[in-house]
Amino acid sequence: MKLKIVEYPDRKLKEKSEIVKQFDKELHKLLDAMYEMMIKSNGIGLAAIQVGYAKQALLLNLPDENDEQSIDNLIEMINPTIIKTSGETTYQEGCLSVPSFYEDVDRYESVTVNYQDRYGNKKTLDADGLLSIAIQHEIDHLKGILFIDKLSYSRRKKFEKEYKKMQKEKKPSKK
């Protein structure tokens, strides 16, 4: 399965993801391909919608103390729901779908999430720190929300201007 990261401003990123009902080989193939794409892209999280699939599925794989992402630390969340939040924090976030842009975003300090694994087994996870931030960021993707949507009006305008400039610089000039 060949996947490509969907980048802002593609409208697909605004789509709300559907609940996963089939925990089958197709889902497993998608999750495996997403993992390869996330690692290849140097990401720590990836939602299915970011590779063009509007399914409530996401991956998280935070680096360990040696800054390595072991598959043993991979978390696959299907149909995740945040059931409890506490505290507040601000964290500088980036996104594979909004390359080369980072901005401070307000999030909950810790969350409790109910979800299913790739086989449909129900799980609960308590998370804080970077894992909590990453979970909230990826669940937002499933709702069609990007981290830039959480910026204030003035910061969002600044982002739009900077991003357009970066996109122009990225395109090869026609001679």
UniProtKB/TrEMBL annotation:
<feature type="active site">
    <location>
        <position position="138"/>
    </location>
</feature>
<dbReference type="InterPro" id="IPR036821">
    <property type="entry name" value="Peptide_deformylase_sf"/>
</dbReference>
<dbReference type="Pfam" id="PF01327">
    <property type="entry name" value="Pep_deformylase"/>
</dbReference>
<dbReference type="GO" id="GO:0006412">
    <property type="term" value="P:translation"/>
</dbReference>
<dbReference type="GO" id="GO:0042586">
    <property type="term" value="F:peptide deformylase activity"/>
</dbReference>
<keyword id="KW-0408">Iron</keyword>
<dbReference type="GO" id="GO:0046872">
    <property type="term" value="F:metal ion binding"/>
</dbReference>
<comment type="function">
    <text>Removes the formyl group from the N-terminal Met of newly synthesized proteins. Requires at least a dipeptide for an efficient rate of reaction. N-terminal L-methionine is a prerequisite for activity but the enzyme has broad specificity at other positions.</text>
</comment>
<feature type="binding site">
    <location>
        <position position="137"/>
    </location>
    <ligand>
        <name>Fe cation</name>
    </ligand>
</feature>
<dbReference type="InterPro" id="IPR023635">
    <property type="entry name" value="Peptide_deformylase"/>
</dbReference>
<feature type="binding site">
    <location>
        <position position="95"/>
    </location>
    <ligand>
        <name>Fe cation</name>
    </ligand>
</feature>
<keyword id="KW-0479">Metal-binding</keyword>
<protein>
    <recommendedName>
        <fullName>Peptide deformylase</fullName>
        <ecNumber>3.5.1.88</ecNumber>
    </recommendedName>
</protein>
<keyword id="KW-0378">Hydrolase</keyword>
<feature type="binding site">
    <location>
        <position position="141"/>
    </location>
    <ligand>
        <name>Fe cation</name>
    </ligand>
</feature>
<keyword id="KW-0648">Protein biosynthesis</keyword>
<comment type="similarity">
    <text>Belongs to the polypeptide deformylase family.</text>
</comment>
